[in-house]
Input
Amino acid sequence: MTTDIRAARALLDKLPRARLGFFPTPLYRLDRLSDQLGVELYIKRDDFTGMNLFGGNKIRKLEYLLGAAAGEGAEYAVTYGATQSNHAMETAAACRRLGMTPILYLTAVVRPDEAGLRANLLLDRVLGAETHIVPIGPGETEAQAEERSFRMGAARAAELNAAGHRCADIPMGGANPLGSVGFAAGMVEMAEQAQAMGVRFSRVYHATGTGGTMAGLHAGRSLLGMDTEIVSVAVSPKEKDAYLDKVCGLSANALALIESERKPDRAAMRLDLTQWQPGYEQPSEAASEAIRTLAQTEGLFVDPVYTGKALAALLADAREGRMPEGPVLFWHTGGATALFAEPEILGDLCR
Output
């Protein structure tokens, strides 16, 4: 490896960090599914990240994002997502842990029932987050509604700052260079666990949306000089070249933040676009089948929005003989609260 694990941790420790999660998250072999697929398959349980039972991978990013905000004296933090956003709920929970007031601008990709709140949106309300639902207007795209939510959030933050109440602006999905440092740290954590187990992963699968997790994994890969292949499974439509340019930039800037001279390898970035359809927060039969398969072989749950689609890509590759030699890792990034979301998100799991 180019940088050993101890030296990598020293670089990561240069940045302020709020201790919010429970690390390292478990990593172990999926014995029954491995036997079924003929693949030596392991899982990294970032659904156990914390801080609460409904946590997930965003806490890794929020440790750095809100650590910096707390160091600057922030009283409030504003962030964005869909109404069932894992990131938004985890930001609200982390804010409460740090004594900040969370403000959420949530785009109604699937319109919620205000009289019967479910899943993450219910948790947002229990957490007492200042919550703004942003509907998608007639003739407006999801992206346009999101842009409108960003403007609304920026205006609310400016109002608070002008009144003398410092408000941090946390990007959707925690997808900026500082947030991506959190997943570079996650990659170092995984490498340390694998080394202790005597395992060398040939490939890692994970779900990608806003790109911060993917950027962080590649930053960690470059930092340690690893040759592990990373398959990033898109959960929403992407324009491939533009998306990879964005992720590569985030990854490079994350490495620069920790003063590493390493650069990410854009040519090594593999974006799987086979599973996102019919759209974000819209279930697919392949994802539903993946959810049932993991539940019925290992007693574990993934969700229809993110991890179910990533697992569907892994299963397709295994069943069609596209796996490399050596152990493979599925990075479970959390989000199982979507199993209790609106029927339009859940799909048909009970066949």
